[in-house]
Design brief:
Layout (H helix, E strand, L loop, with lengths): L8 H9 L3 H17 L2 H16 L9 H47 L3 H6 L1 H43 L1 H22 L1 H26 L1 H6 L8 H32 L2 H13 L6 H45 L18 E8 L9 E8 L4 E5 L6 H8 L7 E6 L2 E2 L5 H7 E4 L10 H6 L7 H10 L3 H6 L17 H15 L3 E5 L7 H14 L4 E5 L11 E6 L2 E6 L1 H7 L2 H14 L7
Parallel strand pairs: 3-8, 3-9, 6-7, 7-8
Antiparallel strand pairs: 1-2, 1-4, 4-5, 9-10
């Protein structure tokens, strides 16, 4: 069995280049040309010195100095213009590639199950989308043209070094080869692994930083410090340890590399002394010596560019690899089926799902049926699988076993857009955009009119919210102190669901963050939302489930009881125990536990 060779990072980037691919190749050609042209001013500078030494002491015979000087200036200007053209071409192509890659990446992420971001880490995903794609822009716009120039220039230099006196040419190359050896120790094959470890450390810090920021309210409430977030601190410590160890490992090779690339003059002087044996240098040897003294600093500058470009190339390879890691994740398959109108029932058949393959099943062989226009509540202890059921119906991920059907159609055969038109959800902590109330509602249905939005807000018991906002439904949230409480956000979220007019509604404890006054209003809003929809309600407060048409009691991912509130109370089972504990909690007063 033959292994298929993975395409190079450059090939991957050229796939995104499209029509600008020709500009990339043109930029490389122009950059190489500019590198060679940039050497010509030094040649004419040497000619000036050659002429001055040849006519010494009668400098009046040096008649070509002005012409050689203007020619050197002309070559310098031409090299600058050509290099500017190379950068223009490379930047146009780079912007196109970075934009195309980011669009492809974001489009692919939109097709992936929501659980993918949780398993990979939102900080890691964010860093790949923003920084990895942006680094490809730097490669094509600057690094790649410079890399070609850094190769073309030494080749031209080596040819020139052997044109006049091969002995001085060898003297210049000896320290360069030694510098190459030191550079290989730092930027050789081991550096690719180090670069991957470096990027992993950065992504780990990014992930943990996101979690730390999310947990700041808890930290401040309990007076803790960063040390309470051991994983965050550990990721910082590991990053610091890696950087320190890598810096120490590169210290000696870097010192020797810097020493060698700047020591060509020492080898030239040593050879000059050996050739002249301490005598005054003859004219030809002196002229050749001056030629190599002029050119040797170019070797040092070129070598430094090669070293840093090699490091940048490894960064790009790593960035492309990480982008391809996300693109390699298979999206959820979609089918052309549509949900039959007026038949929005839901059925989970023998469903099993694990968030991690080795972990215990979040739900196991679960079977639930919700008939059209019925209100069904899912209750149970924390971790019993209630939210997992909601996520499976919303197809945030697919079950490992069994099936989920809406209207008798397996949701794996329903297109994403069709599924999203069919299902609406109100979560525990509803997120609102920092836009106007109207914009937040039109997320559900962009073509909705202001009249329809106002009707939905009225049905969701939001009249008091709109009345106190300075610009009504066109008030932008988050500006000039315009903020909403948790219960108010929930009512706006319910209004958004009403605007959508989805026949199936999933409520993931929509009253969780509401105070008693807001809870009454939220309950009224939910009643309006459920008037013409099939409703699946995840209830932590059992009072919200009391009037449901059917209640499923979950425990450790399985259904242990089902029925109406009265039927479950009569059975004296888990629901009865939970109800009695809930009643005691409601009646509890400060001081009773003392």
């Amino acid at each position: 069995m033959t292994c298929r060779k993975q395409p190079s990072s450059f090939s991957v980037l050229m796939e995104y280049a499209g029509k600008t691919r020709a500009l990339t190749y043109l930029s490389l050609l122009l950059s190489a040309t500019a590198g060679v042209l940039a050497l010509m001013p030094f040649v004419y500078l040497w000619r000036i010195l050659d002429e001055v030494i040849a006519v010494n002491p009668d400098f009046s015979r040096a008649v070509h100095i002005t012409r050689n000087g203007w020619t050197a200036l002309l070559f310098s200007l031409i090299a600058t213009v050509v290099y500017f053209g190379a950068l223009m071409c490379s930047h146009i192509a780079a912007f196109h590639v970075a934009g195309a890659m980011k669009k492809d990446l974001l489009g692919h992420i939109a097709k992936l199950p929501v659980g993918f971001a949780d398993s990979m880490g939102s900080g890691k995903v964010r860093r790949i989308v923003t920084e990895a794609t942006s680094s490809t822009e730097a490669l094509l716009a600057h690094n790649l043209p410079d890399m070609v120039q850094a190769v073309a220039t030494p080749i031209a230099l080596v040819v020139m070094l052997f044109l006049y006196d091969w002995r001085f040419g060898v003297a210049c190359l000896v320290p360069i080869f030694a510098a190459f050896a030191m550079m290989f120790r730092m930027a050789g094959p081991s550096m690719a692994k180090d670069m991957q470890a470096y990027q992993n450390a950065l992504e780990s810090m990014s992930n943990e930083a996101v979690e730390y920021i999310r947990g700041i309210p808890v930290v401040k409430t309990f007076g803790q410090t960063v040390f309470s977030f051991h994983r965050f601190k550990h990721s910082i410590d590991e990053y610091g340890k890696f950087c320190m160890n890598y810096t120490v490992a590169c210290r000696t090779p870097m010192i020797l590399f810097t020493l060698f690339i700047h020591s060509a003059f020492a080898f030239l002087i040593g050879l000059m002394l050996a050739l002249t044996r301490g005598q005054v240098a003859a004219g030809a040897i002196l002229v050749n010596f001056l030629f190599y003294v002029i050119f040797s600093p170019l070797l040092s500058t070129t070598m430094q560019r090669v070293m840093f470009l090699a490091e940048n190339g490894m960064k790009i390879n790593d960035a492309v690899m990480r982008v391809r890691t996300i693109l390699a994740i298979a999206p959820l398959p979609q089918g052309p089926a549509k949900v039959p109108p007026r038949m929005v029932s839901v059925e989970l058949r023998d469903v099993t799902y694990r968030y991690v393959k080795e972990a215990e099943a979040a739900v196991s062989h679960l079977s639930i049926r919700v008939d059209k226009d019925r209100i069904v509540a899912l209750v149970g202890p924390s971790g019993s699988g209630k939210t997992t059921v909601a996520n499976l119906i919303l197809r945030f991920f697919d079950p490992d076993e069994g099936s989920v059907a809406i209207g008798g159609v397996d949701i794996r055969n329903i297109g994403k857009d069709e599924l999203m038109r069919t299902v609406s959800a109100v979560f525990q902590d509803s997120r609102l955009l920092k836009r106007s109330i109207a914009d937040n509602l039109r997320v559900a249905r962009p073509e909705a009119t202001d009249t329809e939005l106002e009707a939905a807000l009225h049905a969701a018991q939001c009249d008091d919210i709109i009345a106190r906002l300075p610009h009504g439904i066109h008030t932008v949230l988050g500006t000039r102190g315009t903020y909403l409480s948790g219960g108010e956000r929930q009512r706006i979220a319910i209004a958004r669901a009403i605007v959508k007019k989805a026949p199936l509604v999933i409520l993931d404890e929509a009253t969780a963050f509401a105070d008693p006054e807001n809870e009454v209003l939220v309950q009224k809003a939910l009643t309006e939302l459920a008037r013409h929809s099939t409703v699946i309600m995840i209830a932590h407060r059992l009072s919200t489930a009391r009037n449901a048409d059917a209640i499923y009691v979950l425990d450790h991912g399985v259904v242990v009881e089902s029925g109406t509130h009265d039927e479950l109370i009569e059975r004296q089972g888990l629901y009865h125990t939970m109800w009695m504990e809930y009643q005691r909690a409601v009646d509890w007063k400060v001081g009773e536990a003392v």
